[in-house]
Amino acid sequence: MSKSNLLIELYSNLSTTGAVTFSSKSLVNKMISHSDLSHAQLIIEMGGGDGSITQGIIEQMNPNARLLVFEINAPFCEAMKKQFPQKNVEIINDSAGNLDKYLNGEKVDYIFSSLPFSLISKEATDEILRKSNLALSQSGAFIQICYSYLLKKLFKKYFKEVEASFTLKNLPPAFVMVCK
User: Fold this and answer.
1) Residue-level pLDDT at 10
2) How far apart are the first and last CA of the chain?
3) What's the pLDDT score for residue 22?
4) Which runs of consecutive H residues, i.e. helices, occur in the chain?
5) 141 and 35 in contact (C-beta within 8 Å)?
6) How far apart are CA 162 and CA 1, in angstroms?
7) How many CB atoms lie within 10 A of CB 18?
């Protein structure tokens, strides 16, 4: 799928994508800087979109690690399956709220998320964040892109520690919340 087709898909599904454009390389680098992917064994991405965050993760992750990418938009999934044919990358066309069904009891080192929690129902948000917290290893982290600092209060309901950083090098500028 071409970038222009991906943008059309993005804009026609604003209620589920929650973004006006895809994540910049600077934002992806900011997210990944809060992790040590070279030692991670199991990584989850929530909201794969155009694969920009996925690409950043793959570039940094251990070749023996596994990456599970959740995306509810079927055209995005199909494009990502072509873009990332690696055996250790699984593109999953399902809600991130079902992540536990794909883990077989394994613990996750990092969860990277670009889900638009301000647009997702309270019930679905609760399910995703509760299951994310349960899925993380003891030293794991949930790393979230968001456009409002006010979401820090939401994440504090589910995680003991929440740190926020900010980058202007994205349209719009964004926060990265690191939750442990």
Assistant:
1) 44
2) 36
3) 74
4) 3-12, 14-17, 25-32, 52-60, 74-83, 122-135, 151-156
5) yes
6) 36
7) 19
Phi and psi, residue 145, nearest 5°: -85, 135
Cα distances from 112 to residues 8, 11, 24, 72, 139, in angstroms, run 24, 22, 15, 15, 15
* 10-residue mean pLDDT series, the chain (180 residues): 45 45 88 97 96 97 97 95 97 98 97 94 97 98 95 97 94 94
152 burial via Cβ count (<10 Å: 0-12, 13-18, 19+) = middle
Q: Indicate yes or no: pTM above 0.70.
A: yes
Cβ distance 144 to 156 under 8 Å?
Answer: no
- Map residue 123 onto helix, strand or coil: helix
CA 18 to chain centre: 13
Contact 177, 163 (CB under 8 A): yes
**What domains lie within the chain, and their CATH numbers?**
3-179 (3.40.50.150)
Q: Compute the residue count for the chain.
A: 180
Handedness of CA 35, 147, 79, 74 (dihedral sign): positive
